[in-house]
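Long-time lurker, first post. I've been practising inverse folding by hand and with some scripts of my own, and I keep getting stuck on stretches where the structure tokens seem ambiguous. Below is the full token string for one chain I'm working on. Before anyone asks, I'm not after the true native sequence, just a reasonable design that respects the backbone. If someone could post their per-position residues I'd love to compare against what I wrote down in my notebook.
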């Protein structure tokens, strides 16, 4: 049974789905709790985004992509790429929610769920292609 679980968790997409679920849960719970205590939706959204982005970086770096850097500079550049990519998707989330609520008149909670689904897809593509970039092995390197 343990071997089966390990094989299941060996798949990067499965790990991303689990991590993404945890990040999304962090985002949603943070947002909904802040809304319940009376925080306006824009402020609740910013706070939940910052919290979920921090959780996302740690999970993606160490568990999903298992990113290892050779230097402090590489780690810094990776973190910078993460901040820029997640900053972009954070803007999509922030302004998308405002657009849906203010312009289209949709319910803020339903709009938040729709935007989160879009952001999950964007985050995976950007994480894989622009942030946690796997180094190509040289032909002379083993395996």
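-- Answer (accepted) --
I ran through it position by position. Result:
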């Amino acid at each position: 049974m343990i071997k089966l679980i390990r094989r299941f968790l060996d798949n990067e997409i499965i790990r991303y789905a689990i991590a993404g679920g945890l990040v999304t849960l962090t985002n949603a719970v943070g947002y909904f709790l802040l809304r319940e205590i009376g925080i306006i939706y824009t402020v609740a959204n910013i706070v939940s985004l910052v919290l979920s982005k921090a959780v996302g970086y740690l999970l993606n770096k160490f568990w999903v992509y298992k990113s290892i850097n050779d230097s402090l500079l590489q780690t810094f550049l990776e973190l910078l790429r993460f901040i820029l990519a997640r900053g972009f998707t954070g803007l999509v989330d922030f302004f998308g929610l405002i657009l849906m609520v203010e312009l289209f008149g949709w319910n803020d909670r339903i709009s938040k769920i729709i935007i989160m689904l879009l952001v999950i897809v964007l985050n995976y593509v950007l994480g894989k292609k622009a942030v946690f970039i796997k180094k190509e092995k040289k032909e002379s390197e083993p395996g």
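A couple of notes from the structure itself: The CA atoms of residues 27 and 48 lie 5 Å apart. The chain is about 80% helix and 0% strand. Happy to go over any region you disagree with.
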